[in-house]
Amino acid sequence: MSGRILVIDRDARRRGALGGALEAAYFDVVGVAEACDRPPDGPQPDLVLCDFAPGCAGAARLSAVAADPALAAPVLAISEPGSAGAAGALNAGAEDHLEWPVASSGEPALLIARARRLIRARIIADELELRQKTARDLGLEPTRAEAEPAAARVLLIAPPSVETEALTAAVVELTGVAVSPAPSGFAAMRMVEAESYDAVIVADGYDAPAGAGFAELGDAVGIIAALHARPETRDAAIIHLSGHHGGRPTLPAAPLTDAPVGAPARRRNGTSSGPARARRAVAAFEAGATDSAPSEAAPLELAARLCARLRAKRRADALRAGLEGGMRLAAIDPLTGLHNRRYFDLHVARLCAKAESTGAPLAALVFDLDRFKDVNDAHGHAAGDEALRAFAHRLRAGVRGADLVARTGGEEFAVILQNARQTEALAAAERVRAAVSGSPVAVAGDALAQITVSIGVASLRPHDEGPAALLWRADAALRAAKREGRDRVRVDAA
Q1: Which residues form the GGDEF domain (predicted)?
Q2: Do 232 and 225 form a contact (C-beta atoms < 8 A)?
């Protein structure tokens, strides 16, 4: 995943180092000293990196950047080491914060992981907002969320200790959320089955119990991956507390200050134990974490990070809630639960227009179940409906949450992949094809039906006249897949 990043930093040396690290990860980077120096005709950034100095002037400058409608992008604040600026930056409107040594030559992987996480969250939020606009085009008024949301519920997964109790008390006092402690990953999995949580804090320092099985639940990264895969916690904010792998984490004690308890004054955010800790944080992001902080971070920083993640989740939840209700009647296929053709035709036009204006890649996948009539003839139409539902489930599982997925005809389906190049689109198509052909589906009682799917892939081109040309080329690729024997993926060669 690439993206456009604007680096705002008055230090030319640091600005160059940040730009170099990001460009090496295939981001498009523009560097300026101040926001007003940005090229007026330049494309809108997907992320802004901005230098930050704690204090009133620094907070006002950062707030202005975060609120600038010309940028309209999440902000990752960068401060000097030992400045304890995380809480101030997050409270001033930044979505995330790093101290300068992490962002420089030593450990750029953590910078890149945070940048990718922020851009991914931005893409999902933009897609939800586009879907609300499409709902209005359908004549629907999205449901309004309650003005006063219920108090957030937080699950803290950390070994039982005095420090864990102190952390729980500090988070409750600073944020007002309800915190439930879980002594292990195994206990946490049982708790999320029984209760709903808005956020989960996972501390490093676990070893899997001998002979207990489920070894992937024995460390923080494994716990995060398991939580991210579960439907109950897939949309929850997951915050990783990075510490020494294989030992107990060093959790902050109770004093509510902006200085780490028992830590040296100069602290590198996320790297107190060097590159190994940074690698653990990167692994946590790759497993599905939405944030990471050093385990001995100040309670004010942990509270600020938690509040920032809860605000983002609340916004996303409100957008999702606004798409329920009437949307299910007017825009959802009742058999499969996917979007219907009416919604697809309106929304794909909006997505193509957005991609053309920003220059972001976009791809279309069209699907047709092979010899679907044979399923109906052999098992009946009710069995055919079961096969369609099973295919829709495997299709939805094989693409990303922000992708537009629709049933466009009887046994015809389509997916629009935003910010996806042709290689990524082909990989997604092959993933779905393999999932469908890999095992039969239950269709009636104990009866099983083997189904396969042919898939056509096309990418948006500058000369395409809206979605019609894109979908025509994807359909042509689908017809080629059918001619060549079915159960295969073909890409537009025009």
Answers
A1: 360-494
A2: no
Is the whole model's pTM more than 0.85, yes or no?
Answer: no
- What is the CATH superfamily name and number for domain 148-322? Response regulator (3.40.50.2300)
199: alpha, beta or left? (left if phi > 0; alpha if psi -120 to 50): beta
Q: Measured between alpha carbons, how far is 161 from 165 in angstroms, rounded to an integer?
A: 6
* 220: phi then psi, degrees, rounded to nearest 5: -60, -45
Closest CA to 327 of 102, 69, 136: 136
Contact present, 411 and 371 (Cβ < 8 Å): no
Pick from 27, 33, 30: nearest CA to 13: 33
Q: Which of 421, 340, 404 is nearest to 124 (CA)?
A: 404
Distances (CA, A) of 208 to 219, 278, 295, 457: 7, 22, 20, 43
Q: Which CATH architecture has domain 332-491?
A: 2-Layer Sandwich (3.30)
Q: How far is CA 120 from the centre of its chain?
A: 5
pLDDT in tens, the chain (494 residues): 578 999 999 999 999 999 999 999 989 999 999 998 988 777 789 999 999 998 888 999 999 999 998 888 999 999 887 656 888 999 999 999 988 866 544 468 889 999 999 998 888 888 777 777 777 777 666 555 444 445 789 999 988 777 778 888 888 888 889 999 998 888 999 999 999 999 999 988 654 444 333 344 458 888 999 999 888 898 899 999 887 444 455 555 444 444 443 333 334 343 345 677 788 889 999 999 999 988 777 788 889 999 999 988 888 887 666 655 555 667 889 899 999 998 999 899 999 998 888 888 999 999 999 999 999 888 888 999 999 999 999 999 999 888 999 999 999 999 999 989 999 999 999 999 999 999 999 887 778 999 999 999 999 998 777 799 999 999 999 999 999 999 999 999 76
Numbered ranges of CATH 3.30.70.270 in the chain: 332-491
One-character DSSP codes across 434-455: HHHHTS-EEEETTEEE---EEE
What are the angstrom distances between the C-alpha of 90 and each of 153, 298, 412? 21, 13, 46
CATH class of segment(s) 4-121: alpha beta
CA distance 263 to 334: 57
Angle 261-265-266 from CA coordinates, rounded to 5°? 125
Neighbours of 16 (CB within 10 A): 13
Bridge-based pairing state of the strands 47-51 and 4-8? parallel
Q: Which residues of the chain does CATH 3.40.50.2300 include? A: 4-121, 148-322
Structure tokens at 156: 């803290």
